[in-house]
From TrEMBL:
InterPro entries for the chain: DO-GTPase2
Name of the featured protein: Double-GTPase 2 domain-containing protein
This protein's record includes keyword Transmembrane helix: yes
Transmembrane segments: 7-32, 38-58, 124-146, 152-173
Biological source species: Catenuloplanes nepalensis
Record key words, sorted: Membrane, Transmembrane, Transmembrane helix
Keyword Disulfide bond: no
Domain annotation Double-GTPase: ranges: 278-493
Signal peptide: none
Residue stretches in coiled coil: none
Length: 521
């Protein structure tokens, strides 16, 4: 009887404690727990976002394998730079924040459980020990979940907004870049390996170590807006670099380079029109003399027209000085080395209508040798090619006039190969390498006109149709037909290789430059 009375008394006390102490206390503790847990979770998220954890950060070293998205084949690999925050780091931070909060929750439940077990769940006083403890832990866990959800939702919303705004901006800026290159035929061509790039690589001038430079980690192959930055990107060295080719071309922190061989480009390569004009023909046809007079004549014509014309580097300035000196003395052009083609470059400037003009000259022996001309890839990327024909190498001219004008032929030093054979060697090389010549233009130049006039023959008028007709009269109709069949447009010229005036080789350059430069000469 006494045991029953004691049990009922204990049950009554427990009930009173639960109703008047535990329930009000639990409500207060639950509210405090939810608030504390929410605040703790938000603080944890903020701590991660502020970078206070020091872990889980996607660095330039890890960006090549840890940043989602495909890298185009021509750019080889991801550039070594800090990624744009919303490209990947926002997701990593969200994951790290979730892991941190879940770890806090597990630790809290474990510590509470261990304490309750160690203290026999409060023993006699379990109503005011066990229940409030469980309520506090559960409420705090709920608060942590709510805070984490709110933090992750905020990250998700901001990231979504950033992507919704950023992706159109990225493609708009890329379109502006690509549109500029299309409208102005802006490219970057290398005079070392002859590769042509729509998007140059850019070498950062920042504080990179010797090993980074050796590994190419200072080279940014794709500076277009994207995952590494929209308007700016931060290089691994810490320097802030502009995106877009249009902006990078004018940055003092960057040097434009060839993506294939690393050779430094000329200033503003990639944003100004790039005209590649290979000159081909037989050995001794007068190609180098043609180029020499064309360059000197172009400088003089530009001066008369008030157009700025610059030689972009010291090496080309020395070459031009030699050309100018030889022209002033009336001396012949030096023989072209057979080891490698010579590139002569000038920049014709007139605001946005600026042009980098590259004239390529390879020895005739190289051009006519199928094994050697396989390396002349500069031929493949030219919109206009120039074929130089020596009229003194034409069989009919030699047969009819050589005996009576031996001194003229001696002075002319006729080309060593048949004109048709020298043309076909290059045309077949182009077609063999898949170059669609039907989309290109050909300047067909008959040179040595000054010496030709000393022969007792009928000279053609200087217009294209008359020169074409004269070539057919000399038995070169097959060559003329082949040239017009192979190329979209063929224009015929008759020039003296020593003429630096407006009717000399510079007339050919005017036609090659075509758009916007009709006032030269």
């Amino acid at each position: 009887m006494m045991a029953l009375f004691g049990f009922l008394l204990y049950a009554g006390v427990v009930l009173v404690c639960i109703v008047f102490i535990v329930v009000p206390l639990s409500v207060a503790l639950a509210a405090a727990g939810i608030g504390t847990g929410t605040a703790a979770a938000l603080c944890g998220v903020a701590f991660v976002l502020a970078g206070g954890s020091g872990v889980g950060v996607l660095t330039p070293t890890g960006v090549r394998h840890g940043l989602p998205g495909r890298v185009a084949t021509e750019f080889v690999r991801r550039d070594r730079a800090w990624p744009q925050y919303f490209a990947a780091q926002a997701g990593l931070d969200a994951r790290l924040a979730a892991v941190r909060v879940l770890r806090w929750t597990r630790r809290m439940w474990k510590d509470a459980t261990d304490w309750l077990i160690a203290n026999n769940a409060g023993g006699f006083w379990w109503p005011i020990v066990l229940v409030p403890t469980v309520v506090v832990v559960a409420a705090t866990s709920l608060g942590l979940g709510l805070g984490l959800a709110a933090g992750l939702l905020a990250i998700a919303v901001v990231t979504l907004v950033a992507w919704l705004v950023g992706v159109p901006v990225v493609y708009l800026l890329r379109t502006v870049d690509a549109g500029w290159r299309t409208v102005f035929s802006a490219r970057a061509s290398c005079i070392n390996c002859f590769e042509v790039a729509a998007v140059p690589a850019y070498r950062c001038r920042g504080p990179h170590g010797a090993q980074e430079t050796a590994d190419g980690d200072d080279l940014h192959r794709d500076l277009r807006p994207g995952r590494l930055g929209v308007l700016w990107r931060r290089c691994s060295c810490g320097w802030r670099l502009p995106t877009m080719v249009l902006r990078a071309a004018f940055s003092r922190r960057l040097v434009a380079c060839c993506p294939s061989c690393g050779t430094e480009y000329f200033p503003r390569a990639g944003v100004v029109r790039d005209v590649r004009a290979p000159v081909f023909g037989a050995a001794s046809a007068g190609k180098t003399q043609f180029i020499m007079s064309a360059m000197v004549g172009l400088h003089r014509a530009a001066e008369r027209a008030g157009i700025t014309l610059k030689v972009p580097d010291e090496g080309h300035r020395r070459t031009y000085s030699v050309f100018e000196d030889l022209t002033a003395r009336g001396a012949p052009a030096p023989k072209t080395d057979t080891t490698a083609p010579v590139a002569v470059t000038v920049r014709v400037e007139q605001g946005v209508n600026s042009t980098l003009l590259h004239l390529f000259d390879a020895a005739g022996e190289t051009l006519t040798d199928p094994e050697q001309n396989a390396t002349l890839s500069y031929l493949d990327n030219a919109e206009t090619l120039t074929f130089v024909l020596d009229p003194f190498s034409v069989e009919r001219v030699q047969h009819e006039y050589r005996a009576a004008s031996e001194d003229v032929f001696t002075e002319a030093s006729a080309a060593l190969y048949d004109p048709e054979a020298s043309y076909n060697a290059t045309a077949q090389r182009l077609q063999g390498y898949g170059v669609r010549t039907a989309g290109r233009r050909l300047a067909f130049v008959v040179t040595k006109a000054d010496l030709l006039r000393r022969l007792p023959l009928r000279m053609p008028a200087p217009d294209s149709a008359a020169v074409r007709g004269w070539l057919c009269e000399q038995g070169l109709e097959n060559l003329v037909v082949a040239a017009e069949r192979d190329f979209k447009e063929t224009r015929y010229f008759l020039v003296s290789g020593r003429d630096t005036g407006p009717d000399g080789p510079v007339a050919v350059l005017r036609w090659i430059l075509k758009r916007g430069w009709g006032n030269i000469g």
